[in-house]
Amino acid sequence: MNSSSLAVALALALIAQGTCRSQQATPLTSRPWMNASLAPDLRADMVLKQLTLAEKIQLVHGIGWGPLVPGSPIPPDNNGGAGEVLGIPRLGLPSLQQADSAVGIRMAAAQARYATLLPSVLAAAASWDTEGAHLYGDVIGRELRAQGFNQSIGGGANLARDPRNGRIFEYPGEDPLLAGVMVGHVIRGVQDNHIMGDIKHYALNDQETGRTVVDARVSKKAARESDLLAFELGIRIGQPSSVMCSYNKVMGDWACENDWLLNHVLKGAWHFPGFVVSDWDGTHSTEKAAIAGLDVQMPGEEYFGEALKQAVIAGRVPMRRLDDMVHRLLRSMFSAGVIDHPPTPRSVIDPFRGFQDAQHIAEESIVLLKNDGTLPLNPAAVHSIAVIGAHADVGVLSGGGSAQVDAPGGNAVSPTTPTKWGEAVYFPSPPLRYIREHAAGAVVRFDAGTNVLSAAALAKTADVAIVFADQYMSEGGDAPSLSLPDGQDELISSVAAANPHTLVVLITGNPVTMPWIDRVAGVMEAWYPGIAGGQAIANLLFGNVVPSGKLPITFAKSADDLPHRCVFGIACTQTTGNSPPHWVSDDAKRQSFPADYDEDVRFGYKWFDAEGKQPLFPFGFGLSYTKFKYSGLQVDRAAKTVTFAIENAGGVAGTEIAEIYVELPRASKEHFRRLAAWQRVALNSGQQKIITVALEPLAMATFSEQKDAWEWASGEYTVLVGGSSRDLPLRTGVPLY
Fold first, then answer.
1. Secondary structure (H, E, C), 655-678
2. Where are the beta strands (DSSP E) in 684-736?
3. 364: closest CA among 545, 571, 183, 635?
4. Count of CA atoms in the C-beta half-sphere (13 A) of 317
5. CA 575 to CA 121: how far, in whole Å?
6. Pairwise CA distance, residues 644 & 720, whole Å
C-alpha cells in the first residue's frame, strides 16, 4: 500500500471510529435515562417527562386477552404469554411480555417450546429451604428469559386459611413467616435473571369458590398479623416489581380498588415502590380504582384506556396520580434490568439442568408421614412389589388452571388428545419405571387400582404393596371435602387388608384425611412433585435420599376440626368423599356473599393449639431415616437470637429442620405459639452442631389498630425449639422486650 492509500485508509478508519463513538454516545445524549448507573426512580422521571398523555395511558393497561382467547387481537411483537403491555419504541421502552409462571412457564406448547415443571409451591415450602426457594425462582427466571419474556406472573403468597382451597398447591402454606420468607426468595431467584417478579393475590384470596364475588371479612389487626404479614415479608425480601391484587372483596371493597390495602398498607406502611397490577379482569372501575391505588389494568383497556384518559382530562383523576402510576411501572422496569438487559436473543432452554433442579427440590420436599420400619426398602430383601393406582405406570399428576405447565409429549395418560382447561395432566415421570430400576432383582407388577378386588389380589401376592393416590386441584374451584376423590380411600383400605406391608404415596395438591392410617406401614406426601417426581419418589422409597421435608400445612383428621366445617359458598351437604375432586365455582352468576374469618389469626396450627385439637399430622412434622436430639438452649435477649445444639443420633446422614416457636407473654391472652425462625441443618451420623438463629421480630409482634403500628408486649416470652409445632423438647422463658 502506497503512502497516499495509507493516508486515505487511516482517515476512513478515524472517521469510522468517530462514527462508532457517536453512535455509542447517542443513547446517553438523546436518551439520558439509558444510563444504567443512574437510580431507577431518576431514570423513570426522565422518561416520564418525554411521554405524551396517550403514551402514559398506553402504559397502564394491557392489550386484551391476546393468545388466551382465540380471535382476540395480537400485536406483532407478542410473545405468546398471558399478557402484554405495549412499550414505547421511540424512547427505547420494550413491551412487557408477561407469562403465567407459578410452577413453570405456562402455554409453552403453543410456540413449540419446552418449560420445566417444578414441584408445587406448597411442596417447595415443605423443604423449608431458602436456597431451594431461590433455585425455584432461578429456574423460572432463566427459562422466561430464554423464551423472550420479561415479567413473571407468579409469586403466590396467599395463606392456607382453608385447606380445601383449589389453589393451595400454588401457595406456600399456612404460616405467614414460612410463606413470606419462601416466596420472597423465589422472587429474588426470578429477578436475579433480570426478569420482573410479582407477588399475588393481594389479599385474602383464600378460596376459589365465588372468588370474584366473595367478601373476605376480618379485623385489620388479624389481617396484618396473618395474610398481610406473609406479603409484607415476601415484599421485604423479594422486592418484586409488581403486586397483583386479587379478585375478591376485602371488607366490602374489591381488592383492586381497596384504598386500605393498596394505598394505606402496601404503598404507605410498606413503602412499596413498584406497581399494582390487577388480576385478569379484576378491575371494576376507573376513578375509584385509580385513586385507590391500582396502577395497571389487565388484560384490557375498558377502565384504564379511553375512560381513564377522559377522567384525567376532566380532572376527576389528577395528572399527578397518572404520573405516579406510570412512574411505578417505569422504575420497576429499570430496577429489574429488563431495559438494560433485555431477554434477546432468545436461547434454547436447558431441559437437563431444569430436570436436575426440579428433582433436587422434589427430593427436599417429600414428607415422610409414617414409617413402621418398612422404609427404606432394601432391594436385596424385597423380591416382589405391587405398584397400584394413580397412573403410576405412566407419570405423575400436576396442578391445573393458570399454573398448568404443558407436558412434554402431551398428557402422559393420553398423549394424542389435546388437553383442555380443567383436565388433569400427567407428566412423563412414571414411578413404576424408577421403582423397577431400584429393585432390579424383584418382580414388580402394576395394577391401575380401578378395580379394588383386582388391586387387593395383586397386593396379596407381593412382599410390599405401594399404593399411589392422587387428587387433582385447579384454579376456579375448591375441594368439597378433605377426602381423597374417586374411592381411593376404599382402595387403600382394601390393599392394606390384603398386605400388611402397604405403603401409600400421596400425590396431592392439598392435605387429605387418612381413615386407613392405622392399617398401613408407611405414608409419604409427595405433593405435585414435578417433571422428576417419579425419580425423586423412588430415591426416597429406597433410601438413596433421606427424607427431610416437613409439613408447611396442618393435616386435619376431619373437616369438623377446621375453623369452618365447609368452604364459604358450598353447602355442607356437598362434603362427602364421593363429591367431585374439585368444586367449580359459578363466579359470574353469583351474588356477593361474605366469608367471615372470625377465627382471626387462629387458623392452621394456631387453631389446633388454641382449641386443644389433635391434628392427624401437625404443622412442621416430618420423619427421617435417622434421629435427631436437641440440647443446650440459650436465648440472647439483646440480639434476639436462639442458640442450641442438634445431634444426629441415628445411623445415616440426614438433614433436620429445626423449628423455633414463641409464645407471647400471658397478658396477650393468646393460646397458641408462633413460628419465629427455623434452620435446615445437615448432619452426618453422630455429628453435632451448635446452631444460632435470629428470631423474626414481626413474628413476635401484635398489630395495634388504634396506633396503626406494630407493638411488642413486655413480659416473659416462652421460646420453644424442636422438630415440629407439637414436638418441642427445648423450652425457656425470657423477657425479650
1. EEEEEEEEECCHHHCCCCCEEEEE
2. 688-694, 702-704, 709-711, 717-722, 730-734
3. 545
4. 28
5. 26
6. 11
d(CA 523, CA 372): 10
- Spatial separation of the C-alpha atoms in residues 79 and 65, rounded to whole Å: 13
DSSP letter for 555, please. Answer: B
Contacts of 388 (CB under 8 A, 6+ apart): 446, 447, 448, 449, 455, 458, 459, 465, 466, 467, 468, 491, 495
Residue 483, CA distances (Å) to 163, 291, 370 in order: 11, 45, 18
Euclidean distance between CA atoms 550 and 172, whole angstroms = 12
**Rounded-to-integer distance, Cα 70 and Cα 94, Å:** 25
**pLDDT (tens digit, 9 = 90+) per residue, 195-235?**
999 999 999 999 999 999 999 999 999 999 999 999 999 99
pLDDT tens, residue by residue, 311-341? 999 999 999 999 999 999 999 999 999 999 9
Q: Omega of the bond prior to 299 within 30 degrees of 0, cis?
A: yes
pLDDT in tens, 705-723: 999 999 999 999 999 999 9
Question: 512 to each of 59, 390, 437, 553, 675, how far by Cα in Å?
Answer: 44, 15, 30, 11, 23
Measured between alpha carbons, how far is 727 from 682 in angstroms, rounded to an integer?
A: 19
pTM over 0.85: yes
Q: Could you give the angle at which helices 130-147 and 351-365 cross, rounded to 10 degrees? A: 150
| Per-position b or e across 666-678, b if 16+ CB within 10 A of its CB | eeeebebbbbbbb
Task: Give the Cα separation of 685 and 683 in Å (integer).
Answer: 6
Angle ∠(348,352,358) on CA atoms, nearest 5: 115
Q: How far apart are CA 305 and CA 324, in angstroms?
A: 16
Q: Which of 509, 422, 494, 510 is nearest to 458 (CA)?
A: 494
Share of the chain above pLDDT 70, in %: 94
Query: CB–CB of 97/340 below 8 Å?
Result: no
3-class DSSP assignment, residue 332? helix
Could you write out the DSSP letters of every residue in 200-259? EEETT----TTTTT-EEE--HHHHHHTHHHHHHHHHHHH--SEEEEPSSEETTEEGGG-H
Side-chain half-sphere of 681: how many Cα atoms within 13 Å? 26
Q: 325-353 b/e with 16+ CB inside 10 Å = b?
A: bbbbbbbbbbbbbbbeeebeeeeebbeee
SS3 393: coil
Crossing angle of the two packed helices 176-191 and 227-238, in degrees rounded to 10 = 30
Name the packing angle between helices 319-336 and 306-313 (round to 10°). Answer: 130
CB 488 within 8 A of CB 428: no
Q: How far is the first Cα of the chain from the last one, in angstroms, to the nearest whole number?
A: 85
Residues 117, 398 contacting (CB under 8 angstroms): yes
Handedness of CA 632, 130, 232, 603 (dihedral sign): negative
